[in-house]
């Protein structure tokens, strides 16, 4: 221990020297320490760190976590604690040769994956593989301290002069804030590495994760499986980019249950839109789960060797600020601390304003999908049957720019039911239904009953898959069972649909292996399995659940249970998932969120708590697919000539199509299609995990900068900003679906379940949102039908959304008002007199304003307009009775 009297005498002496000689008191104080030969401590009520001085400098000897009862849990110290990377010349950008664990050259991916090849090659650079540069190991030789909660280390050699300031965070007792400053004494490229504190046993640890890239409870020697798919942790000290790191931290939970996280301070990493152009791919922060010595410990690098800011002329300085958090708790709890307390995620909701409500977008997209010109609706003849779908202008295997696709059948039938629109009911839906029936394989043989492909090519008159001549079992779950299942909810007496459903379910059951898993895909010509290096870590089992729910055949229930059990063991428990986008060779994607709802539906079916527990666990994993950085602000930026505040174009709150090393988020950033939002709201109601609610609202609220003004359709990818549907006109249906799902979920949660509507099956492919309107719901005990009536309601405040429902027997109109802001809002609600009269063929009699508990706040006279106040994130209902 330090002799404090001697320390104070030394400090007083230094203060005098400082006045006369202008020498830093810290340096003088360090000499006091050096003379004393004492250990150096950082300590508070929960943490104790002890460094010991020796002939080579100061080495961390002990890191202990106090238990509050006088006990301490000692962590295992790193052997090589401090590292700087240096290169005289810029490291090469070209990819290195890599070998598998058997010493064989790795060839990945196949040549047709043109979207994946460039970013995979980039991820094999010497910097990414952490083989670039000269390793400078060091130990500070002097140390100074003004209090037990702060230390300053210093070190100097021929190349660098380095200082480290360590301070215990007074607001978060488990956190240590560190700032490193390096001054170059020789010109060259430099990268600061966060010092290694504790390490985990490489053979035995509970969990490790770089959010958005890797997660797992073991090192995986299969380099492609770990590095490309995030299945476990790569067994080498790779350094990844921040562009797909959803939260800027690396986390390790040791076998003893202590979680150590190394977290970049806000402002360290790249800003994806710095001033007036996309800077998403800039690389300022490197993240790793190992140090250069291959020890398992969360490690950050800044600047990245060879990247902007890493070259220093003699005399120039760079600074790196980060923190450690060390807690006896799960990785998820520590991640939540980082997101909430360091990156202030919930504060984003305070900035959100909107000029266009979600409800307004729904009605605008109703117009969009109705018009043939904007929706790119096309009908063609296939085998003497008129089929209809929307043009798909992206790349499809074998297409000559003639691909057609329908996306969200549940949303299509829902919109027709809610609006009663004759064009939808008489023209669109029949042609779309024919498309669905023609999509099923009818030729005898191996594929009989399965889905023939997502897309139809009208020139060659054939169905096909997006990225090759193969068929996936999950494609049959999607495009036969889930789509047809949703249609049957609205048209339950269609025997032709039930027959098609049974054929599809039988095919899916026949291709399931005895242990409950499926192949990823089969070659269309030979029927042989493909992608045998991958496992079908996707909710393929859900198709059998749909079949059982509608056909009541126990064999489908038994099959769903067997397959769901396999998924729980091999995917949910391990945190290993596979995606459904063939163009990225099935990189994990939004199908992970889809599996959450699938597992919850299995729990509803069986009451087996394992499914609910697995769903909650996968939910925690999926939060790492949501960006939480940079911290949004009101800084003015320019986007295609338009001034935007930073928060308007923020990535924070948006999820990946797919992240990781290979996903589209590397190029395009996240997506605006937030199918998970409603699910996260519903899960908040069950778990009271506020992070889920904040994430749902951050995704949904105030995204005007990405919405096409004319159509109400949001762009798919973040970097497209407000270009609308672009080559994906069918995406509007998914947007109709997820926004409706979100609004109804909010209404249910805010009313404590007193407003609720039966939900349908999950939609294919983009996530877990569901359809509504096929059956009556309830509002405060009253049976109602969900409705959409364009022009009936007008509001003067875009932060208020609304849901319409009617009780025809009692002649009641319900307007459910949702305040989608964190501030109290006032609105003027107006009802169009003519439309109001046509609802029930009579005039209004009286009106009531009802609060979220179902209590009448005030009775009102019949009118065409009312002024209403809604509490922050609150709900009220206007009930209008008719004569």
Automatic annotation (TrEMBL):
Q: Which UniProt keywords apply?
A: Signal
**This protein's name:** J domain-containing protein
Q: Which domain of life is it from?
A: Bacteria
**Signal peptide positions (record):** 1-34
Does the record carry Mitochondrion as a key word?
A: no
Q: Which Gene3D superfamilies match?
A: 1.50.10.20
Task: Give every J domain span.
Answer: 477-556
């Amino acid at each position: 221990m330090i002799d404090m009297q001697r320390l104070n005498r030394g400090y007083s002496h230094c203060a005098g020297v400082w006045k006369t000689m202008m020498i830093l008191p810290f340096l003088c104080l360090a000499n006091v320490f050096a003379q004393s030969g004492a250990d150096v401590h950082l300590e508070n009520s929960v943490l104790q760190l002890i460094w010991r001085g020796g002939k080579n400098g100061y080495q961390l000897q002990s890191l202990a976590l106090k238990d509050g009862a006088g006990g301490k849990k000692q962590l295992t110290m790193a052997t090589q604690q401090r590292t700087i990377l240096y290169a005289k010349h810029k490291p090469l950008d070209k990819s290195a040769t890599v070998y598998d664990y058997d010493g064989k050259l790795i060839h990945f991916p196949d040549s047709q994956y043109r979207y994946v090849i460039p970013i995979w090659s980039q991820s094999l650079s010497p910097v990414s593989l952490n083989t670039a540069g000269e390793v400078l190991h060091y130990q500070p030789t002097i140390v100074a301290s003004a209090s037990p909660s702060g230390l300053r280390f210093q070190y100097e050699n021929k190349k660098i002069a380095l200082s480290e300031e360590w301070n215990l965070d007074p607001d978060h007792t488990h956190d240590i804030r560190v700032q490193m400053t390096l001054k170059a004494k020789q010109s060259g490229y430099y990268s600061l590495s966060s010092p290694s504190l504790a390490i985990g046993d490489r053979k035995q640890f509970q969990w490790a994760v770089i959010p958005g890239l890797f997660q797992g409870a073991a090192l995986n020697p299969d380099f492609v499986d770990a590095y490309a798919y995030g299945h476990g942790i790569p067994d080498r000290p790779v350094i990844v980019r921040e562009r797909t790191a959803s939260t800027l931290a690396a986390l390790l939970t040791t076998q003893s249950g202590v979680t150590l996280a190394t977290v970049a301070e806000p402002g360290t990493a790249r800003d994806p839109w710095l001033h007036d152009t996309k800077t998403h791919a800039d690389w300022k922060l490197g993240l790793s789960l190992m140090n250069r010595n291959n020890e398992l410990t969360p490690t950050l690098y800044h600047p990245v060797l060879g990247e902007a800011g890493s070259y220093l002329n003699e005399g120039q300085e760079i600074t790196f600020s980060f923190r450690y958090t060390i807690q006896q708790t799960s990785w998820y709890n520590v991640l939540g601390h980082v997101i909430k307390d360091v990156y202030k995620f919930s504060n984003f909701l305070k900035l959100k304003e909107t000029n266009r409500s979600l409800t307004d977008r729904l009605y605008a997209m109703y117009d969009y999908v109705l018009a043939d010109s904007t929706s790119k609706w096309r009908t063609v003849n296939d085998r003497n049957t008129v089929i209809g779908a929307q043009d798909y202008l992206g790349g499809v295997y074998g297409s000559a720019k003639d691909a057609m696709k329908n996306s969200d059948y549940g949303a299509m039938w829902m919109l027709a039911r809610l609006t009663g629109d004759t064009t939808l009911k008489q023209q669109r839906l029949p042609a779309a239904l024919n498309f669905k029936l023609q999509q099923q394989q009818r030729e005898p043989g191996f594929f009989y009953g399965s889905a023939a492909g997502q897309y139809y090519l009208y020139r060659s008159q054939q169905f096909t898959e997006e990225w090759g001549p193969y068929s996936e079992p999950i494609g049959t779950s999607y495009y036969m069972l889930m789509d047809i299942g949703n249609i049957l909810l609205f048209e339950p007496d269609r025997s032709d649909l039930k027959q098609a459903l049974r054929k599809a379910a039988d095919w899916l059951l026949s291709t399931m292996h005895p242990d409950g898993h499926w192949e990823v895909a089969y070659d269309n010509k030979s029927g042989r399995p493909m992608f045998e290096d991958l496992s079908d870590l996707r909710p393929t089992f859900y198709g059998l659940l749909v079949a059982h729910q509608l056909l009541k055949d126990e064999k489908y229930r038994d099959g769903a249970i067997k397959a769901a059990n396999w998924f729980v063991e091999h995917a949910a428990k391990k945190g290993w998932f596979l995606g459904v986008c063939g163009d990225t060779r099935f990189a994990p994607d939004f199908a992970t969120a889809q599996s959450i709802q699938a597992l919850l539906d299995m729990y509803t079916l069986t009451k087996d708590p394992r499914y609910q527990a697995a769903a909650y666990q996968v939910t925690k994993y999926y939060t790492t697919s949501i960006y939480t950085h940079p911290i949004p602000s009101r800084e003015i930026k320019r986007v295609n000539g338009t001034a935007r505040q930073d928060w308007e174009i923020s990535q924070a709150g948006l999820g990946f199509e797919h992240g990781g090393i290979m996903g589209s988020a590397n190029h395009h950033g996240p997506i605006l299609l937030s199918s998970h939002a409603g699910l996260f709201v519903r899960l908040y109601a069950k778990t009271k995990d506020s992070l889920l609610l904040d994430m749902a609202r951050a995704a949904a609220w105030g995204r005007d900068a990405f919405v096409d003004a004319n159509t109400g359709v949001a762009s798919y990818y973040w970097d497209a900003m407000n270009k609308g549907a672009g080559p994906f006109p069918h995406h509007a249906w998914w947007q109709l679906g997820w926004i409706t799902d979100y609004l109804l979920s909010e209404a249910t949660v805010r009313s404590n379940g007193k407003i609720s509507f039966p939900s349908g099956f999950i939609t294919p492919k983009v996530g877990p949102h569901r359809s509504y309107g096929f059956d009556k719901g309830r509002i405060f005990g009253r049976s109602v039908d969900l409705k959409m009536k364009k022009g009936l309601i007008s509001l003067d405040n875009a932060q208020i959304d609304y849901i319409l429902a009617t009780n025809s027997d009692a002649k009641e109109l319900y307007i459910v008002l949702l305040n989608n802001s964190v501030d109290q809002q006032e609105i003027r609600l107006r009802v169009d007199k003519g439309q109001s009269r046509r609802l029930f063929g009579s005039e209004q009699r009286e009106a009531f304003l009802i609060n979220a508990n179902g209590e009448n706040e005030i009775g009102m006279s019949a009118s065409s307009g009312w002024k209403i106040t809604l509490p922050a994130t609150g709900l009220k209902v206007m009930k209008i009775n008719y004569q």
